[in-house]
């Protein structure tokens, strides 16, 4: 693969700025670009739990769209209204899910386990002392 010199210099600058290995950064940016081209309105956002596919312009993860549609019987229009987004974004999220079902399902399971563990720790913590 050939990269024009100006783009390569920009990539090198960004790798230095972020402390990322050049090849890792290039692979990440290539993945970002492919996701945005193949699934219009979807991007990979960085979160405390890693990179996640989300609706462009929102912090709504694809997995949340999937969970909402499952709970609502698959009604795309209802999900779009619930999230306050265009139905096209919901459709793109579901197209992403169709092609990445295993990864999205794993993220859903991981988040549920994370929430269960957080609740368990919270319940195990003594409350404030009463007077």
Short note summarizing the structure:
The chain is mainly alpha-helical. It has helices at 5-18, 22-38, 62-71, 76-83, 87-99, 101-124; strands at residues 42-47, 50-55.
3D architecture notes:
- The protein is mainly alpha-helical and 131 residues long.
- It folds into two domains: 6-38, no CATH class; 41-122, Arc Repressor Mutant, subunit A.
- It has helices at residues 5-18, 22-38, 62-71, 76-83, 87-99, 101-124; strands at residues 42-47, 50-55.
- The protein has a two-stranded antiparallel sheet.
- The chain is flat and about 55 Å long.
- It starts with a helix and ends in a 7-residue tail after the last helix.
List keywords for this structure.
single chain; 131 residues; mainly alpha; Arc Repressor Mutant, subunit A; two-stranded antiparallel sheet; 66% helix; flat
Overall form: flat
CATH class of the largest domain: Mainly Alpha
Helix percentage: 55-70%
CATH topology-level fold name of the largest domain: Arc Repressor Mutant, subunit A
When the domains are counted, the total is 2
As a percent range, the share of strand residues is 5-15%
Uncertain stretches of 5 or more adjacent residues: none
**Mean of residue pLDDT?**
93
Q: How would a crystallographer describe the biggest sheet?
A: 2 strands, antiparallel
Count of individual beta strands: 2
Number of helices: 6
């Amino acid at each position: 693969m050939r990269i024009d010199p100006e783009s390569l210099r920009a990539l090198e600058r960004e790798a230095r700025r972020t402390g990322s290995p050049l090849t890792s950064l290039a692979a990440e940016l290539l993945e970002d670009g492919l996701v945005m081209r193949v699934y219009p309105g979807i991007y990979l956002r960085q979160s405390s739990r890693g990179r996640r596919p989300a609706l462009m312009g929102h912090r709504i993860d694809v997995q949340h769209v999937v969970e909402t549609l499952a709970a609502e019987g698959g009604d795309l229009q209802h999900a779009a209204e619930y999230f306050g987004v265009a139905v096209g974004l919901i459709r793109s999220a579901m197209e992403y899910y169709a092609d990445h079902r295993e990864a999205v399902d794993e993220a859903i399971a991981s988040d549920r386990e994370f929430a269960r563990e957080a609740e368990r720790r919270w319940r195990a913590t003594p409350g404030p002392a009463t007077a």
